[in-house]
Amino acid sequence: MGSMHRHHRLITSPVQTEVGSILLAGLHLFGHGVNRSGKARVFDGAALVLVTRGEGVYKDAKGKKTPLKRGDAILVFPGVAHWYGPQKDQIWDEIYVAFDGPLFSPWFTSGLLDPEHPIRHLGEQIDAKSSWLLLWIEQFAELKSQAKQIQAMTSLVQFLSEVALGEGFVQKQNDDWLNRAKGLLSYDLKGNIDLERVAKDLGSSYEAFRKRFQAHANQSPMRYRNERKVEAAKQMIRYSPQVSNREVAEALGFSDEFHFSKRFRQIAGMTPNEFRTSVK
């Protein structure tokens, strides 16, 4: 089977209103960031990108080079040459929305947001934030009335303010540890995971790691990883319905389609086929 990279453009052309425009929006699954070449690009508008799986780096023409991981948000400033993506031969998932116009521009041009600090660390908030943004994009794509589009844009501005200026800007120590643990557990969902190695990477014994994770996440490390697998499967089924259950199982490292279906039902409360039907 070829590359599993899926780029789902949910808003494919600019939606313009009197107060602003949504230029593009969508998500990358098993993606490679801006491009595989590592060549910087310049974007006329602004954008918000949420990294929901994997690790990588952000670089720009101002000399900024910042490591990225699951739970990070990237603020793309107009006219700033930049590149972001996973390391060579690695992949990640991201949700993005690009915008411009009077409603959005002051955030990026008035000094309210500093291009010297384009990264925000959302930590545990990433699941809730990414779910909200993806749902917003899906709903916005269906709007026909400009009045409703403007109303939706104002809610996006509020969301942007929460990401850029909210509590996620500074993480507490436990949040940082848990985010790192979740990132390691979410890495390479297809491969086998060595929980002893994860614990070692976090500077603790397996038993100490397991207990601390359980205390902060209210679930075991393996349960969390299985939930990430099922969530990735849901995204593949929802946005690539032509991909079979067998292909999804293979892409996410399940031993076979039966094992995949059983685990999916345990986590999601329905079979993969029932989920397919529910999102048609």
Report on this structure.
The chain starts with 5 loop residues before the first strand and ends with a helix. The protein has ten helices and ten strands. The model is unreliable at 167-172 (pLDDT under 50). The chain folds into two domains: 6-169, Jelly Rolls, CATH 2.60.120; 173-279, Homeodomain-like (Arc Repressor Mutant, subunit A, Orthogonal Bundle), CATH 1.10.10. Helix 2 (126-141) runs antiparallel to helix 3 (146-165), helix 5 (195-201) crosses helix 6 and helix 7 packs across helix 9 (257-268). 43% of the residues lie in helices and 21% in strands. Strands 1, 2, 3, 4, 7, 9 and 10 form a seven-stranded antiparallel beta sheet that branches. A three-stranded antiparallel beta sheet has the order 6-5-8, with no helix packed on it. It has 280 residues and is an alpha+beta fold. The protein has helices at residues 105-109, 126-141, 146-165, 173-186, 195-201, 206-217, 221-239, 245-251, 257-268, 272-279, and strands spanning 6-11, 15-16, 21-31, 46-53, 55-60, 65-69, 72-76, 82-86, 92-100, 119-121.
Total number of strands: 10
Can you write the helix and strand succession as a string?
EEEEEEEEEHEHHHHHHHHH
Provide the CATH superfamily of the largest domain. Answer: Regulatory protein AraC
* First-to-last CA distance: 25 Å
CATH topology of the largest domain: Jelly Rolls
Topology (elements, then pairings):
Layout: E1 6-11, E2 15-16, E3 21-31, E4 46-53, E5 55-60, E6 65-69, E7 72-76, E8 82-86, E9 92-100, H1 105-109, E10 119-121, H2 126-141, H3 146-165, H4 173-186, H5 195-201, H6 206-217, H7 221-239, H8 245-251, H9 257-268, H10 272-279
Helix pairs in contact: 2-3, 5-6, 7-9, 8-9
